[in-house]
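Quick one:
INPUT:
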């Protein structure tokens, strides 16, 4: 019995089995599919999360994801470094959501690999200047309530708009009312520079402020002169009322002529 016990205690799993289990665990971790999504392997993982009522981008996505489909959900914002670990990501579809903001650095980590980015049919009215910094992907921004101003012009200068949908990127509001409803690209191609409007608005505001300041100073000077003139008049009248001050009348007349 003692020998049999020693024999059982010395049994160890083969090294090949341990290695296989470790490899399977690593594969499962790398390819774990988010709940409510469907994943397939097509020379990389395709993650299908369309119409799943999601309110944010799922965390812990498979690191070998090459296609991420998140359209028709309720996502409202894209925080910084949301896709930082997806270095193989080539296609990202965020269309038909409720996205109102995209933070600078949201696409950090995928700027070199990404080829297509779809942000159409969201609630975007503006974006930070460096949102698409170093991004070489073709971007769709159609059917968003864009506010046409200098900041948007600078954002568009930094990216490659999808030519098929470029004319659907239009001004819902604008620093100049005449451009509301027009395609942003067509307005810019016509030679309009929204940044010039910004500078002109700033110049006008400075002019108005300086004019108001000058008017206040002028009004104060006029008040000061009138107030002193009235005090001088009263003082002279008082002196004239005193006996033996006939010479004061001449001084008063001189002072009045001066004022």
């Amino acid at each position: 019995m003692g020998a049999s016990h020693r024999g059982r205690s010395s049994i160890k799993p083969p090294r090949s089995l341990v290695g296989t289990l470790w490899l399977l665990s690593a594969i499962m971790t790398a390819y774990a599919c988010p709940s409510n999504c469907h994943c397939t392997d097509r020379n990389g993982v395709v993650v299908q999360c369309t119409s799943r009522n999601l309110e944010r981008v799922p965390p812990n996505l498979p690191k070998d994801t090459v296609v991420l489909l998140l359209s028709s959900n309720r996502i409202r914002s894209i925080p910084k470094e949301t896709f930082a670990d997806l270095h193989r990501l080539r296609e990202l579809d965020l269309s038909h959501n409720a996205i109102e903001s995209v933070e600078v650095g949201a696409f950090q980590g995928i700027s070199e690999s990404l080829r297509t980015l779809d942000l159409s049919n969201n609630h975007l009215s503006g974006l930070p200047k460096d949102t698409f910094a170093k991004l070489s992907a073709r971007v769709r921004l159609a059917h968003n309530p864009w506010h046409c101003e200098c900041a948007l012009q600078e954002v568009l200068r930094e990216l490659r708009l999808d030519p098929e949908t470029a004319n659907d990127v239009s001004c819902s509001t604008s620093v100049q009312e005449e451009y509301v409803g027009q395609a942003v690209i067509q307005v810019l191609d016509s030679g309009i520079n929204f940044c010039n409007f910004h500078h002109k608005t700033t110049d006008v505001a400075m002019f108005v402020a300086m004019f108001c300041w000058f008017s206040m100073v002028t009004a104060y000077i006029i008040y000061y002169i009138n107030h002193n003139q009235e005090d001088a008049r009263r003082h002279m009248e008082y002196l004239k009322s005193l006996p033996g001050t006939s010479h004061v009348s001449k001084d008063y007349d001189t002072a009045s002529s001066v004022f």
